[in-house]
Amino acid sequence: MNKRALLTLSLMFTLAGCHSNVRDSSPSLLKDGIQLQQNTVTADAQHAKVIMKATGGTYPVEFSIRRADDSDRRMEVLGTVVDSGRGKVFGWIAKVNEVANSATVKRFPQLEAQADAGKPFEVSGYSNSRVTAGIFSCGPLKNTFTPQQGKVYQVEFQFIDERCEQHVYDVTQPQQRIPVNG
Fold first, then answer.
1. HEC states along the chain?
2. How far apart are CA 29 and CA 32, in angstroms?
3. pTM, two decimal places
4. What is the pLDDT of residues 120-147, one digit of tens each?
5. Quick check: 92 and 107 in contact, CB under 8 A?
6. pLDDT for 148-169, tens place per residue?
7. What is the largest CA-CA distance in the chain?
């Protein structure tokens, strides 16, 4: 085996082992190829739908979850979201941002997960980005709530000036945002 092939194999094994201590089901270019949108889920008689979004800034937010029945108690990384500016900039600019982020770096406008009804569900959001003044870091912020069957919940990681907050809303009726207490 020549040195180049050996170096390539060594690098592949090293990179594959980087996340060995993390439960990571987030999409990647190698694993999932080019995706133009995140996978979606539905609420049904045994499950609720949980949507995770970021608002108020364009910093990427990594979301992780933990279900009550998980035998492995580590948080499971679902992926990264970023606010594309939809509703704030021209629609075509937001769409270009979404496609570029989704297809290449796997940053979606939102993530979705199915949650078991009547069992605690924990969501953690974390943002860490390079900015001109150095590094902006916020979180991890965690919310635990017990979803109800057939409902749709939205977990929002909100950038507010120099700080951030994370809130959970019942958005089963799209025109209503009802705060959910943990």
1. CCHHHHHHHHHHHHHHCCCCCCEECCCCHHHHCCCCCCCCCCCCCCEEEEEEEEECCCCCEEEEEEECCCCCCCCEEEEEECCCCECCECHHHHHHHHHHHHHHHCEECEEEEEEECCCCEEEEEEEEEEECCEEEEEEEEEEEECCCCCCEEEEEEEEECCEEEEEEEECCCCCCCEECCC
2. 5
3. 0.73
4. 999 999 998 776 677 778 989 999 999 9
5. no
6. 999 999 999 999 988 899 999 9
7. 63
